Amino acid sequence: MYRTGAIVVAGNHGVLSSATSGQGARDSEQDCFASPLACVEVLGESVLERTVGRLRASGVKKIDVVTGPTGDLRRARNLRFRTVEDPNLLWQAAAHALQEFARRKVDAVLIAALGAYAEVDVRAAFEFHHTKAQAVTPLYDRDGALAWWIVEPARVLSVPTFSLPLAEQDMSDSPVPYFVEGYVNRLADARDLRRLTIDAFLGRCCIAPRGREIRPGIWVGDGVRMHKTARLVAPAFVGNNSRVQSSVVVTRFSNLERDCFIGEGSVVANASILPHTTIGRGLDISSALVKGSEFVDLSRNVSLLLQDPLLISSSISSGARGSADPKQHQHLHPNPQPEIEYSYLSRAAGRLLEVFKGEV
Amino acid sequence: MTSGRSVIVKQFPRVLDAQGSQAFFQELAPHLATDRPCLVFDLSDVRYLDSAGVDLLLRSMEEAMKRNGDVKLAALSPETAAILEMTRTDRLFEIFDSCSDAVESFYRFSAQSLQPERALDVNPQGER
Q: How many independent structural domains does chain A possess?
């Protein structure tokens, strides 16, 4: 019997680092590591969770996940997590996991660096590796190497110079690569994450929104509270326990992930609002990716770090952010700002209109 | 041609949060209190702007408008542009790439306003 396993390494850069860091970006390095793109939810489930699900569906039972302290990652059952505090130690932890697979006499291990979201036919890839009888099979797509490999633990660990991640020059016998024919998104930056969302809405990949399709092209999760005057224009997604206030418009392939709060009158167009994000009232969020207090303007390729409840803010307390224990999360909305600050900015704009009309 | 009105260019600080905005508005107040104040806000250095900073811009414009003046913005950093777009305040201001363009715009407007016969000639064909 051919025994297979997988090591999924999710530790690439996060949302903020992918664009030019702008205001208040001094804390971004820490935040980035806490939330790599692969751990960010897209239409209700992260790339990491979807990859693990795909591996399980292909019959891979033993899966190790190596990641940073990603507090908002939901822990799948029967999944072994190796959490490291220092991003430089990710691959070292992956190497330890590989040694353990070798001890458990696993024949072939898929090492997947997320990084890329790839719809790989895992069974076919393992079969290919088995047929070629090589120590390492790198996975490629039409744009080149994917940083995914299938390795035989016993063989690669016997090489004294072996280290992860595998470099092209380390593979002495130039192995035959396996070409992935399915959908691949390298998730190199925030734009890629946005593109993944749009591709999912358009059915270009196998990502299905996790929610009920209440109208054609509109998916809503559990516990969503939406004002009757809020408008969702298909395709759109609203994740679990999100709150959408009056006169909000969500349009142009936008997704609000779980536990979001959108203040009244705001417009979300061609944007992804990631979990635990509070958007203030009367704002215009377009061509953007917002995660808590991190705002990436995709049209200007600039990232901002704000913590202003009138604009954007995180609904997780700073102590709980980046924590490995999801129980530590405290949900601070639904009422993110005191009533006295209600429509603060729009009132000022209203006064201006009066000045224009000469009423003052 | 110049109208004789002086345009004041104000360089904004790097951080415009609640505290910074309050202090900066005190600095702006004398300029805004003049007759027909013409101000250009140079936002090239601004790296942090929150709702308090946006409110400062709106209050300044309001005060200037009350006295038949105007406030124009110049040299927005991408961060500032993103926040102004998010708060929908970008459409309330005239925004220029450079301070000199913004200053010139005040004089251009004044020069045109000195030639009312051309500006008001809505029926050049003489049709009735």
A: 2
Mean pLDDT of chain B: 85
Q: Which two tokens mark A233? A: 């224009």
The two structure tokens encoding residue B12: 């904004």
| Model pLDDT for residues A57-68, shown as the tens digit of each residue | 999 988 998 887
Of 3.30.750.24, 3.90.550.10, 2.40.30.20, 3.40.50.1370, the CATH number of B7-111 is: 3.30.750.24
Per the CB < 8 A criterion, the answer to whether A43 and A87 are in contact is: no
A194 within a domain of the structure (yes/no): no
Is A323 inside any structural domain?
Answer: yes
Task: Render pLDDT for A171-183 as a digit per residue (tens, 0 to 9).
Answer: 666 789 999 999 9
Q: Which residue of A has its CA nearest to B47?
A: A23
Q: Which residue has the tokens 């708060």?
A: B87
For residue A136, the SS3 value is: strand
- In angstroms, the CA A16 to CA A88 distance is 19
Q: Which of B88, B90, B94 is best to mutate for the A interface (most A CBs within 10 A)?
A: B88
- The model's pLDDT over A152-206, given as tens digits with 9 standing for 90+, comes to 998 888 887 788 888 766 666 678 999 999 999 998 888 999 999 999 999 999 9
Judged by CB atoms closer than 8 Å, whether chains meet at B79 and A286 is answered as no
A313: closest chain B residue by CA: B50
Q: Which of A301, A311, A355 sits opposite B50 (nearest CB)?
A: A311
pLDDT in tens, A71-86: 555 555 556 778 887 7
Kindly determine whether residue B89 and residue A349, on different chains, have CB atoms separated by under 8 Å.
yes
Which residues are registered as beta bridge partners of A262? A244, A279
Using a CB-CB cut-off of 8 Å, the residues of chain B touching A311 are: 50-51, 83, 86-87
Q: Which residues of B touch A345 (CB under 8 A)?
A: 51, 54-55, 58, 87, 89
Q: Would you list the domain boundaries of chain B?
A: 7-111
Question: B40 near B59, Cβ under 8 Å?
Answer: no
Judge whether A84 lies within some domain: yes
Q: Structure tokens of A328?
A: 């530590």
What is the ipTM metric for this complex? 0.80
Residue whose C-alpha is closest to residue A45's, from A207, A256, A223, A259:
A207
Option in A300, A310, A355 nearest B82 (CB): A300
Helix, strand, coil share of chain B (percent; to 5): 45, 15, 35
Report the residue of chain A nearest B59, measured CA to CA. A348
H or E stretch covering A51: helix A47-57
Given a cut of 90, whether residue A331 has pLDDT beyond it is no
Computed over its alpha carbons, how large is the radius of gyration of chain A? 22
